[in-house]
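Researcher: I'm preparing a figure for a lab meeting and need a structural model of a single chain. I don't have an experimental structure, so a prediction will have to do for now. The sequence is pasted below. Please return the structure as tokens so I can convert it later.
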Amino acid sequence: MTGTTRVPKAELTGITGRLVKAYSRRTFGEVPEPAEVMWHHTAVVMNMSAFGRKVEKWDKVDPNLKSFAHMAVSSLVGCTWCLDFGYFHAHNEGLDVEKAREVPRWRESDVFTPLERLVMEYAEAMSRTPTEVTDELAAALLKELGPAGMVELTASIAFANLSTRTNSALGIEAQGFAAACELRPLARPDAETVTPA
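Model: Understood. Here is the structure written out token by token.
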């Protein structure tokens, strides 16, 4: 399912490693490859995981919007692991998986609301270097989400960039989470479909 990572996987050892393996297998069916690759520096993987859990608890923005934003970042950056896991996560959290599968081709798809499109446009604009966020785009989102929501969405997208760029740079690819749930293949920007690896 996955290719060779740029840093070899490490064995999750010790009490913490055994707990992470048990939790991962119970929750996901297997240990996520990012944990195995980053286990060489346990403080990094544990702190990033802890921060990710905190990000998920923020509640000023609809979870679907944040999920679409994260997947839009993943698609732009090219993190197949994050797209695969994001689709799996949407399924497990009861989010809109039919829309989630369309995120890679959100511009061509007719399933998204105007707000969802604004969120994905913002996610992509934030993720470009240099950023391409315009005053008009920010104002439109601020009107829809309010100040607290705008801050939360922005910080969520920043975290998405941290995780997607880390995985992409380390050569971590799709692990087959979506396929394991028998989810429909993720859409491609050209309207073809591709089965998550």
